[in-house]
Amino acid sequence: MATFKPKFIKPDTDDAINESAGIEEPQSSTFVFNAHHNLGLSEQRERLPIRKYRDQILYCLEQHQVVILVGETGSGKSTQVPQYLYEWGWHSKGTIGITEPRRVATVTLANRVAQERGELVGDTVGYAVRFQERISPETRIKYLTEGILLRELLADPLLTQYSVIIVDEAHERNMLTDMLLGLLKKILRKRSQLKLIISSATIDASFFSEFFSWPGAGEVSVKLSIEGRMHAVQHFYLNEPCADYVRETVATIWKLHHKEPPGDILAFLTGQEEVLEALDLIKEYIASEECTTLKALPMYGSMSSQDQLAVFFTPAKGVRKVVLATNIAETSITIPGIVYVIDCGYAKVKWFNPATCSDSLMIVPVSKASAIQRAGRAGRVRPGKVYRLYTKQDYEGLAPRQPPELRRSELSGAVLQLKALGIGNILRFDFPSPPPAKNLLSALETLYALDALDEQGQLTKPVGFLLAELPFTAMLSKMLHVSGKLGCAEEIITIIAMLQVQSIFSRPVSAAAQQSGRIAHRHFEVAEGDLITLLNIYTAFVEEGMTKEFCGQYYLIYRNLKRACELREQLINLARKKYGIPIFSCKGDVELLCKCITAGFFTQVAYLHHSGVYRQISSGTELAIHPNSTLYTLPQAQYVVYGELLQTTKLFMNHVTVIKKEWLTELAPHYYHQTTVRD
Ligand code: ADP
Ligand code: MG
After folding, report:
1. Of 19, 296, 407, 534, which residue is the least packed, with the fewest Cβ within 10 Å?
2. What is the domain range of residue 444?
3. pTM of the shown model
């Protein structure tokens, strides 16, 4: 495979700020805290809060088609309920399926449950996630991601192999959860023997029972709450809004530490960068006062499990622990010992931007439901206190809950899947919370532009069906399809694999190391942009023997690069064997690669306006190159395509590639007419 040598080395600059806006992904965390790890497995099972509800759950499931199970994280919903159903014999009527939003949790849960049953995973208990499964004819308890169940629906529209489906972590209301709930509602009405358990970690579950009711069916659903011990929490607010919640968080921690009796502190911030910034600040306080009674620890999804472990330990006597965490600590994990919570009042979320017809990441005020959930974290051990870094009035004005992902996201993937499942009129589909019609229409337009839908809104053959089946976004799938034709699938698959994993760039905390990191990354950077840079890194990593030393030297994250390599192998096989895509290398023809990238991203183009800023070609919206992009410090190219948008201080483009204007009319003539492409 050819290496794409940099066309020129970028000049040294130190104005590139470190402003990664990656959304928190708890899926990288495999760590599960277990307070009873020194007991035998069966005794551990007996001690879980859910144990007392076993018979009630089984009874309710006999009586109702849908059971809504509410219980706090760690009570035993995900690991125990499937086993109760199995022990009661539900498996004799069909497989017990449990859907999870994240692949790592899916695998971990299956392993744990197999272990509790004294078996190997893949026998009675199995799992299926994207690109990987451990299932045998004996499997009766099957953990699978929501995406996999949606795919199974293509072959088995009534899910006849299942007796019970458990939709786990339903409170997250992510896009696939909602799509599944909509489809399951249809199936339940057709298959009265099928049962559904909706498992949620937040109290507010009335929504689900309302959705699962239909005329003439009596009481379809029932709600069951697993009692967790909950103590009173006192609320404190600011009198005036604060200007900088990171600094305010740190100041609050410091004050609290000096005034309040013992008890650990949990502070919520919106992302990894803020967590690290606050950690630095608090460490400065600690160092300057030579304080030995406060221990500060970070907690975010992309930390190694080993590092995450630290937050679960009880600090030494006389020492107070303060955990600076992202949203991961809101429901995904429970940290013991917390008595004080500090809530910055914001969260980072993906949001559909109608101006650009795509999603961008934004920091927005939390919902009331989130604020309550965060506060609740303080009352698990004994009465606690929550410090909200906003005014009481601001709290009153918060939205009751965050709109579900489906109502605030780009929908082309969802529409594609529903079309493949035979849902002809998407606008009339019974979504748990219907998305705005304009978002749906925008998705239909994008899919039409990508040649996946025809003028009647039907999936096209072969492109539409291929795009619906491939496990990536519609644009990346289109890119892969075109790469087979252009003879560069080998490189495009590498790029796609690199885009599927979390960032491979290590961005250290200290300013000096940040600078060295930036210089090291420059080694791979090319004028064509970020995707070719990723290809370069992959190539160099493989040529240098895929070592940890290489990653250390160049400030790259070994774990993520390794994962990209594994993924790449699987994708090559999948593309060749399943989809018949010819796998050829373009042998260093960078222009061909950039063209192929354009064939996927042609709806996401920006041009350089004469005023010196980029504008999106279709809407005229101003866009800026993200400081983390290779192109940030290079002379501005006339036309670029981007892979994603991030909203922080400005609307930033990320994963940017330089293109030529004439490619647009050549590759997407139906979308671009010569006259509409601006100069
Ligand atoms: P829930 O789904 O209600 O959050 P789980 O069923 O996942 O709860 O977990 C219940 C308990 O089982 C946890 O509190 C933990 O003690 C234990 N547990 C679950 N998974 C693991 C694991 N992989 N390793 C060790 N302990 C685990
Ligand atoms: Mg769970």
Report:
1. 19
2. 406-466
3. 0.81
